[in-house]
User: What shape does this take?
Amino acid sequence: MRTLAFLLLVGTFTLAGSPLALAQVTDAERSAARQLFKEGDELQRAGKFTEALDKFGKAQQIFSAPTNLLRIAECQAALGHLVESTESYRAVVRTPLPAGSPPAFQAAVDQARGELTQVEPRVPRLVVQVDPGTVPNPQMQIDGQAVPSALIGEPFPLDPGQHKVLVYAPGYASTEQSFVLKEHETKTLPVSLKAMSGVTYAAGTPGTGGTTPPPPPGDGSAATTSIPPPPPPIEGAPAPVVKRSRAGLLFGLHLGFEIPTGSIPLPTSINASDISGGGLAYAFDGGLRFARQWYVGLTLEHAGLGAGKDPAQIANYGSNISSDTTALGLLLALITNPDKVSFYGAVGLQNRWYNVNYTDTAGQPKSGSYSSGEVLLGVGLWIPGGRSVRILPEATVGLGTFSVPGQPITTGSSTTTTQGSPGHAFFMLGVGGYYNIDL
Assistant: This one.
């Protein structure tokens, strides 16, 4: 951007030898302008654009030249003042160059023309749409400055960053909104105006006590309208801009009730509900929320199961039956809106271990251990409770087929070989609580 720096520095003050320059500035002023340009050049190269802009601005006030304006435009662009920068670039491009102007002036104009094509597309624009469209005489302020009402509904260039827009009209409550513009963005901002009940506006009647009020601020027309001024803007701070976190860490605990169904190979396939009933379950959860709506994490669940409805289905069953289950899984979940009450859906893979212990009719202890890979499915309701707490009422199911991982049913020294069961499902209905840490 500054490959012509030395040439421009020299060219800026070469004009001092022309009759036009001699008529405009004294030798002392030329020397002061030359020093200011040199100081601005050094500051710009050091990345101190605010200080450089001040130096170039003063040099331009002393000695108007396209080289000064080019540097002003570059510093404005570097500071994010894109609207002002494009206008400065256009001023350089429109600079008339009389015969005999230094080559550096033409180089500055050509360079400004090229840089303008790069900066101009970066300028964001705002389109304010007033609803309803039939509102009479709407007025608008942006960042506290009145804007011609003709620009309502039209693209309006603004610098990137945070802004405020205020729209008001006679008989309507004024509305103020905060918003953020990014480079290259064209944002459409809908503004709804609500009519104020019980307020009637009538034209003044000369000679009968009526008055003709001044126009609303920013209208710019003569004070001949009979419409009274709009209500004053709403005082107070604008509504805060809520930062929507795109990532976070979640740690939590689930409590619920788990019910086994399907088949257990003991040693032949029998109903799980005959051996085990429902029981209290708890789970530890932890993971990462990313891309705002997605969550990936681990879950470790354990449940102590109650007695089944017909334990005698086990061959040689005597008494003292007990069972429990543990599952470790990895899941991926979708939270449709992490900042509001919304739908939660999860899918994952896990491994389940299921243990059965009882005493047979001969008084011998018997046990069985089974394992299974499972598909984990879950649905729930995501409920934010402040910044750090999340509540999740949820129903889950683990679907799989048990096999015996090396600890089949045993009685003393005898071993009975078992086969896999047709399939099973473990349902849990519970409530989870999470601690959220936004990243």
Remarks:
- DSSP finds eight helices and 19 strands in the chain.
- The mean pLDDT is 80.
- The two ends are 37 Å apart (CA to CA).
- The CA atoms of residues 67 and 212 lie 52 Å apart.
